[in-house]
Specification:
about 280 residues; alpha+beta; five-stranded antiparallel sheet; two-stranded antiparallel sheet; 8 helices; 11 strands; about 15% strand
């Protein structure tokens, strides 16, 4: 009898060990340890192409500098511009700063013209880098988001090139203009109409972010093969659409761009040398 009890205890202990080992394997898959002992974040689930509307964003400009596209006068952007291509998780969180690869602008030297036009900084502030300190807008996007996109997009050059290609293919400004939603400082447009225009064009639900009733950001989401998908929290139903755009009222505006800086003598915006920022 004692022998039988010992065997049962041993079997139970073995079962507990196997369960614990399985849990450890699952956890290790989700949060692996890198070659230098640093935690390695699990691979992301989908891409979020974050776009900015200059007409809204530039209203917050209080001073100008050479790298602020809001201050280019007649050459300032009048279409949705890129904020970044972000790898995200389905639960609403995201990986960040996945490697120690530093941004090197020389790597994207052949892309500078389209980047300046379609992926410009809309402020004079210098965002923080992954390793402390301040850096450039593109450097921040690469180090924080691009390094985590690497399983799909590859190196720095291909991250920026891929983002530009996706941006050009899914031209939100063109879709909205063709549907009659054009920049205006007087018109208000139905939120549902704007979302429906994008759904009809790309067969996926976007996410909108508003500020004081004006569109400030618009997000398009993609599977890892860059086929459109609904953004997390959104679907084709109207309730989910409104939930995913909860910062926006039922009627929203697309403000026309108001020129700042160069050539705008009435502007109260001050120019600040870049080296003092």
């Amino acid at each position: 009898m004692a022998i039988l009890s010992a065997k049962l205890v041993s079997s139970a202990a073995l079962a507990l060990i196997l369960v614990a080992a399985s849990l450890c394997l699952i956890e290790a898959k989700q949060f692996e340890i890198g070659s230098r002992g640093r935690p390695r974040q699990r691979e992301f689930d989908y891409f979020d192409l974050a776009l900015q509307w200059p007409g809204t964003y530039c209203q917050r400009t209080r001073y100008c500098c050479p790298n602020n596209a809001c201050c280019r006068g007649s050459n300032s952007p009048t279409v949705f511009t890129i904020h970044g291509l972000w790898p995200d998780y389905n639960d609403g969180s995201w990986p960040a700063c996945c490697t120690k690869k530093n941004f090197d602008e020389k790597e994207i030297s052949t892309l500078l013209d389209p980047l300046e036009k379609y992926w410009p900084s809309l402020s004079c502030g210098k965002p923080s880098s992954c390793r402390g300190g301040k850096g450039s807008f593109w450097g921040h996007e690469w180090e924080k988001h691009g390094t985590c996109s690497a399983p799909v997009t590859g190196d720095e050059y291909n991250y920026f090139l891929t983002t530009l290609n996706v941006y050009f293919k899914y031209n939100v400004t063109k879709v909205l203009n063709e549907a009659g939603y054009v920049p205006s400082n007087t018109e208000k447009y139905p939120l549902g109409g704007i979302v429906s225009a994008i759904q009809n064009a790309f067969h996926a639900t976007p996410k909108l972010v508003c500020r004081n009733g004006a569109v400030e950001e618009l997000h398009l989401c993609f599977y890892k093969d860059f086929k459109p998908r609904d953004c997390a929290g959104g679907s084709s139903s109207s309730n989910d659409m409104l939930f995913s755009s909860s910062s926006c009222p039922s009627y929203i505006s697309l403000p026309a761009y108001a020129s700042l800086g160069a050539g705008n003598v009435e502007s109260e915006v001050s120019w600040v040398p870049e080296d003092v920022l």
